[in-house]
Design brief:
This protein is an alpha/beta fold. The protein is built from 8 helices and 6 strands. It has a 4-stranded parallel sheet with strand order 4-3-5-6. Strands 1-2 form a two-stranded parallel ribbon. Strand 1 (9-11), helix 1 (14-22) and strand 2 form a beta-alpha-beta unit. The two termini are 31 Å apart.
Length: 238
């Protein structure tokens, strides 16, 4: 407000909505009562369209259409009614059950996706999970596999593979895999689907979201509440 910036409010209500309306700022309403991590479509696409209309980015309707088509296909393939033998999301969840997941992506498109996988497994599945990216992990984390120990024998690595990514990154991944695959339980490769960047990114976001949901079911926990976070907030508010 102080710098007279153009403001658009994205909110489910509350003080932010009141402040925006008092100053005649446009308000994009997000449905209330859902966990923020479950509202990704309500948060991502309105911001995308707003930046389009402000001429900050080029028009992306073609990419959005491809993304929606990919997600519709995957919702059938990964859905609850799809049997395990045909359902990669369920297979990933079954593989990660009773193990420590490490999610590896690559700098660029899949860096944020790898972090979302980690946080979805934390919050939905109620499990520890860690993430890193190529090429950075080859400068440090790879050394952590040199010594055979009981901790590494609980590790399963999920590698998020961008089929349209740089060949040099894939070369690093394959060399790294050869070095460490006998030190961990399993190295699970999860490839992107689609052609455009948006479709490829969301194809793996969707896979991770559903895998974490199925993993929560295996752990016999409700994926929605985050009791530890709520307890932390209560303590901080005292």
């Amino acid at each position: 407000l102080e710098v007279k910036a153009r403001v658009i409010a994205l909110t489910s209500g509350g003080k932010l909505a009141v402040l925006a309306r008092e100053n005649n700022f446009p308000v994009i309403k997000v449905p209330a009562g859902i966990q923020p991590r479950a509202a990704i479509s309500y948060l991502f696409f309105p911001v995308l369209k707003a930046t389009e209309r402000l001429d900050l980015i080029k028009e992306r309707s073609g990419e959005i259409e491809e993304t929606l088509n990919i997600l519709q296909e995957l919702s059938k393939e990964y859905g609850a009614k799809s049997p395990l033998k045909n359902n990669f999301a369920k297979k990933v969840a079954m593989s990660l059950y009773q193990h420590l997941p490490l999610v590896y992506g690559s700098e660029g498109l899949l860096k944020a996706v790898a972090m979302r996988w980690k946080t979805q497994i934390n919050e939905n599945s109620k499990l520890p999970c860690f993430w890193n990216v190529f090429p950075e992990l080859d400068h440090n984390e790879i050394v952590g596999y040199e010594i055979e120990n009981s901790i590494n024998q609980q590790v399963k690595i999920v590698y998020l593979q961008d089929k349209e990514g740089f060949s040099r990154v894939e070369q690093r991944r394959e060399i790294t895999r050869k070095i460490i695959e006998d030190k961990v339980v399993e190295f699970i490769v999860c490839p992107t689907k689609g052609k455009g960047k948006m479709a490829r990114m969301f194809s793996l976001i969707f896979l991770g979201d559903l895998a974490s949901y199925y993993l929560a079911i295996l752990n016999q926990v409700d994926p929605s509440p985050v009791a530890c976070i709520e307890d932390l907030k209560k303590e901080l508010a005292k």
